[in-house]
Amino acid sequence: MRSKVFIGLLLAALILLNLSVDRWVPNREKTVQWQQALSDWYWIQGYEAWIKKDKQRLLDDYSIATALYPSNLTYWRLAAQTIAFDLPTWERTEESEQGAKIRERYANEALSFFERSRPYFTEDPDWFLTGGFLAETAAGDRSLAIDYLAGAAAQPEFSYQVGRRYTRLLVENGDLKDAHAFLVSWLADLNQSASEAHQSEIQAWILSLENQLNLLTPTN
Amino acid sequence: MAKRLRCMGLLARETIREVLIHNRWFHVCVWGLLIFVLAGRFLTDLPLGSSAPKLLYDLGQGTIMSVSGTVLIILLSYHLLNELDTGAAQTYLVRRVSRGDYLVGKLLGCWLAVVLLVFLADGLLAVLVAGEMSELIESGDLISALGITGWLQLFLFQLLHLLILASLTVLLVSISTSFLFAALSSLLLWSAGLLMGAATDLSGSLEGLGGFFIQAARFIIPRFEVWDVSNSIWYAGTLPVSEVLRTGVFGLLYGSFLILLAIVCFNRRDL
Q1: Do the chains contact at B51 and A64, CB–CB below 8 Å?
Q2: A164 touches chain B (CB under 8 A)
Q3: Interacting residues of B187 by C-beta distance below 8 A, sequence separation 6+
């Protein structure tokens, strides 16, 4: 009888420990190894579906591979790019108008697929950069691309590529003042370790934008 | 003939009763499998979009087949070799029960017990998947759901798969005296048979001895991957009747051949 009570208490303690593990071990990597292994397995299955051009299977395999290991940005990025750029070619038709519609449909599908990963990368500039790339090149939506890159530029640290792309998009969109303000703040935030070539490029860009802004400003 | 069938039926019934009523390890496996299938429901909270039912289905099918196959191998190996060791088998065999009838009776008993386990788990999985799919259909994210015919076909193929696995186990039991050898070699051959499809694809890119061994293994190891139709049924809804019949007849022939081989080996064995 005593041993049964003891076993019962041990089991209860084990359950309590399991329930409180999140509280005691914060910020730990949530994805366990079997999930990663399973995710890789589905990714390989997706490759097989890609070879066979089996769209529905590919979408399922990529969805499951990314969902099982959601902190893996590479899978999200590659899957979204496959949806945006590969799937339309599987349905290519002779008529260019219909082809554009197909591309638009898949671009939206890729973006909504990629958006599922947002909660896992709220502080990752690379995620915003990928979103911006998809929005610009696949969907042709410059405003959306700017929104994504603004998210990347709002991070404490972001790559030179992010800043450059963001500025280019703002300039192309006609938002010269925003582009100038961003470049000035970016230059001020750049630390000493930033390469001189990058710094001088940003300075040259600021000057060029100031010239354009002066030309645009009406003189009395 | 009728007497032999009756004899096999009685043996099978006795084995089922023993497994279902007295085998506590089997009870634990039943509850464990049902809990594992149910646990798949928690994974659907992941960012899966309209692929949530597919993950539930895949994990459920994978768990059902791996657990039921392992349970079948262990049950059969242990049951037969334990009865041979303790002399319980000899008490049947002196009562005008032929060795073949004894083997087939035991095989059928263990197989039917595991079929019941698969039936319960499949039923639970079907309810979970249908629930998940109906939510997606209501929200317009999914157009069609897997119907009852698809589930029945899937169940039929699982039965065939398990029957061939049981026949293979009986064959290995009939040539061995060790439970561990019979169970482990059955598990090994079964796993190799399941991976044979992927290995065959790989052998195309392998040159030399590696590719040769994989090609040679294809002719020896039973190719269990043929009976795994879960993906085809999921995407096609149902398989054509002609394909089901053809595969079904082939499976029965394959299983019968293995059982005949097992009986021949068992008849030559000293008891």
Answers
A1: yes
A2: no
A3: B70, B73
| pLDDT tens-place string over residues B192-221 | 888 887 776 666 666 677 777 777 777 788
Cβ-Cβ contacts under 8 Å, B50 against chain A: 63
Residues 6+ apart with CB under 8 A from B112: B12, B16
Interface of B with A in 221-260 (CB under 8 A): 231, 235
Instruction: Report the sign of the C-alpha dihedral through residues B23, B24, B25, B31, in that order.
Output: positive
Q: What is the ipTM of this complex?
A: 0.71
Tell me if B49 and A57 make a contact (CB, 8 A cut-off): no
**Residue B140: which region, alpha, beta or left (left: phi > 0; alpha: psi -120 to 50)?**
left
Residue-wise pLDDT for A161-207, tens only, equals 888 899 999 998 888 888 899 988 888 877 666 677 888 888 888 88
Query: Which residues fall within 8 angstroms of residue A45, CB to CB, at 6 or more apart?
Result: A57, A61
* Residue that has been written with the tokens 């959601």 in this structure: A70
Locate B186 and state its tokens: 């059955």
Helix (H, G, I), strand (E, B) or coil at B179: helix
CA distances from B19 to B23, B64, B109, B254 (A): 5, 18, 8, 26
pLDDT class of B156 with cuts at 50, 70, 90: very high
Exposure string over A63-88, b if 16+ CB within 10 A, otherwise e: bbbbbbbbebbebbbbbbbbbbbebb
Q: Is the CB of residue A139 less than 8 Å away from at least one CB of chain B?
A: no
Residue A154's SS3 state is coil
Residues of chain A with C-beta less than 8 angstroms from the C-beta of B54: 60, 63-64
Q: Best of B55, B129, B139 to disrupt the A interface by mutation (most A CBs within 10 Å)?
A: B55
Give residue B189's Cα distance to chain centre: 13
